[in-house]
Amino acid sequence: MKIVLVEFHQESNSFNPLPSGIEFFERSGMYEGEAVRAFYGDKPCALAGMLRAIDESGATAIPGCSMFASSGGPVEHGVAEHFLEKSRSIVMANGPVDGVFVSLHGATQTTSEEDCSGYILEAIRGAAGPSAIIAVSTDLHANITDRMMEHADIICGYRTYPHQDHYETGYRAAKLGLACLTDGVKPRMVKAKVPMIVPASGYSTMSGPFAELIRYGEALERSGKLADFSIYQMQPWLDVGDGASAVLAIDRDPKRAESYALELGQRLFDLRKSFRPDLLSVDDVIERAERNRSGKPVVLVDAADSSNAGATGDSVAVVRRLLARGSTLRTAIAVNDSPAADRAFALGVGRTADFTVGGSRYPEMNPPLQVEAYVKSLHDGVFVQEGPAGRGTVQRIGPSAVLQVGNISILVCRQTAGNGDPGLFRAFGIEPTLQELVVVKACGSYKAAYSRMTELIYDADTPGAAAVDLRSLPFRRLPKETYPLSELDGYRVHEIVHARRGR
């Protein structure tokens, strides 16, 4: 058997006005052919999991094109076309192929296509033909559209948040895809549509009701009642017409898959109000940090400006309040601000000068701030994540500088990455445990690492394209009959979509 592997991974935020161009993908690396195996084969990622499953089966893995980018605004459509041109070429050159296994994020839109993932799978289906098996791995925050269901045989999503099972998800998807090729009775996939979105900072699989729901699904799997399941909390900053959370259930018995998809979907929907985080004002969090005598840092979660969620990452709202209050808290914050980093490099270490910080990307939402800053250090921006989530992953945030404004250490860079990992600060000389206030621009990825450091973690009501108060955002395309745009009390999950059949 011949299996082609490809990857297109980017999480889009519809409210970020800056499109993601090819440079976003070049920054993380673009690979083709055997370079895909050479780079990803030993990494904790979906492609490595797929490669292992294919190698174990004795089938031939044919690495195609991999394009991976950080979250951001909608992808420039030409970038997706570039990926498809290369992917179709590898499929056609090796045809007929038995399958195409695809690593996607699943919550991606382009400047022309609301449903980029469905668009990609439709194009791959056209190249591979009706009999090829298409198996897909996705993020837990994917938007599983009807179009994706039409063109894929298998879709598997992460089951952890913070995400720690990229490899395992790729392996699951590939094993199920291979089963479609080798077993007498193919597993069937069913989707239950769940009309809800909730802020990603409101839940975790480490503990709480969402974790319990995942454990329940895993118990169904262990007992043999389901072959596989995925529970999707759709990325809530995706303003698209076919947008919703979802549950996928896979089993050889399509009726059983349908029954459990509906049950898990209803359980998810019934938990929706428990996923609403308690927000404190920035001043409230600062006051708690000023009163703190535990010796542990206070973490202010600025989820609204998380570039992990596609926001611009250029807000200095917390810095503004610290300066306005005359606070002397030792504070760490990272800001996407290329002009400030460039100015620091032009001045050199040890110089003090006036800087404009923040608002370099979205000044209408994140106004800039004028400060006098000392250039403390300059860096190439390469660091390795500590984990546990993504441990060992190499991140590149571009030429970066640490600016000191009183007791505030501001890391300015091209593009933050690994936002929830303490390595983002430690690699640049800022030790989080020695700070009194750490501003973390992430929705949930920080929990695995920072909860080991301190229990003093507070969600703050901050501005940004990934605002936690979803009703404050200007949704235009998302169906109005979606919680929390509508309360939908008493709603029963009933919409079912079966994956393609009869091919």
UniProtKB/TrEMBL annotation:
Pfam families registered for this protein in UniProt: DUF1485 (PF07364), MlrC_C (PF07171)
Domain annotation Microcystin LR degradation protein MlrC N-terminal: ranges: 2-289
Every Microcystin LR degradation protein MlrC C-terminal domain range: 300-477
Highest taxon of the lineage: Bacteria
Classification via InterPro entries: MlrC_C, MlrC_N
Protein name (record): M81 family metallopeptidase
Organism: Paenibacillus antri
